[in-house]
Amino acid sequence: MNDPVQIHASCAARGEQGIVLSGPSGSGKSDLLLRLIDAGYDLVADDRVCLHAGWASAPAALAGLLEVRGIGIVRMRYRARVRVVAVARLVSPSDHPPRLPPSPRCDKVVGQPVFFLDPAQPSAVARIGLVLDCIAGHRHLLDERQL
Fold first, then answer.
1. How far is CA 32 from CA 22, 52, 67, in A?
2. Which GO terms describe its molecular function (predicted)?
3. Residues 115, 112: Cα–Cα separation, whole Å
4. How confident is the model at residue 1 (pLDDT cuts 50, 70, 90)?
5. How far is CA 37 from the centre of its chain?
6. What residues form DSSP beta bridges with 43?
7. Could you tell me which residues are beta bridge partners of residue 96?
8. In the chain, what is the greatest distance between 2 CA atoms, to the nearest angstrom?
9. CATH 3.40.50.300, domain 5-146, yes or no
10. How many helices and strands, by DSSP H and E, does the chain display?
């Protein structure tokens, strides 16, 4: 990914790790981003994410803005950019991903491992933390051959 590209997504940072939250409008990206921020993650971008050479940032006009349904648009502290290490593809409960998916596939646009996540699950924030721990090497994600 050499040329800058802008996608409809959100992005949060934990330390030096960035996670892109992707999904269609109304899938819960901003709500999950709000829960991640509440859990100590940094806001990088909401609604639109600029990607360039593995880094994510907000478009200048949206930097530091978070849309909270039922409340409005809130200005808050944000991180200017972060290295993207994973993509959480948000799915609805009716789109059940397999219990034991094959080894993580890479997102075609971002070029990083993609995981499927129901953002309405109470464990959604913990699952993102677990994914980032696995990528950082603090935990080990087994594939089906290792079971």
1. 11, 23, 11
2. ATP binding; phosphorelay sensor kinase activity
3. 10
4. very low
5. 12
6. 12
7. none
8. 48
9. yes
10. 2, 10
Whose structure tokens read 């990528």? 135
Q: Are 27 and 119 in contact (CB under 8 A)?
A: yes
The owner of tokens 């934990």 is 14
- Reading the block at residue 106, the tokens are 């890479």
The CA distance from 99 to 124, in Å, is 15
pLDDT digits (tens, 9 = 90+) for 110-120: 888 899 999 99
List the chain domain ranges: 5-146
> Tens digits of per-residue pLDDT, 87-112?
999 998 777 666 766 666 888 888 88
Tokens representing residue 87 in the block: 């993509």
Find the radius of gyration of the CA atoms of the chain: 15
CB 15 within 8 Å of CB 129: no
Output b/e per residue, 16-31; b: 16+ Cβ within 10 A: ebbbbbbbeeebbbbb
